[in-house]
Amino acid sequence: MAKANPFIPPGKDYGAVDTESRLRALEDFDLEQCHAALEVLGLQATVEKKLRTRIRALEKQAAQCETMQRPKSGCGCPDCGSSLIDVPGDRVARMPHPKYLQVWQLIDAALFDYHEPHQRGDVCNILAPILAPLVKDDIDLAKLQGVGKGA
């Protein structure tokens, strides 16, 4: 069964056929409507390009961070890319310094039983850049993860 033409409103026999009308119409399309619109015969190249851009934006918006259980677009944890734990003054998108990442993970582990994932991420993003420079280079942060837990 063919998908309904999303450029034709429900209950009507006609809809947007010119480029300008279709570009306006697709601004409100959801992901399913965008995919259906790509299958419309006689689709203008400009409309197709805009549809593909909208699909990418909707997919990106819908992506969830598995670590923090919130949208990746506003997460900021080390798993999602750029965050507050990047080395200060460094504007190149890259993984943070291993020490910053270790401090971030240590803080996250310490708060695991007490806070929701997004709250832990926010606390880690604030504290890691402050605490990482204070940690000696030769300290093994992995050993500290067991400190303070009931013995």
Give a structural overview.
There is one protein chain. Helix content is 44%, strand content 0%. With 151 residues, the chain is mainly α. The model is unreliable at 83-88 (pLDDT under 50).
Summarize, please:
The chain has 151 residues and is an all-alpha fold.
Q: What attributes does this structure have?
A:
151 residues, mainly alpha
Radius of gyration: 24 Å
Oligomerization state:
single chain
- Identify low-pLDDT runs: 83-88
How many individual β-strands? 0
- Coarse structural class: mainly alpha
Sheet-strand content, in percent, reads under 5%
- Quick check: average pLDDT? 78
How are the elements arranged and paired?
Layout: H1 19-26, H2 31-38, H3 45-62, H4 98-111, H5 117-131, H6 141-144
Helix pairs in contact: 1-3, 2-3, 4-5
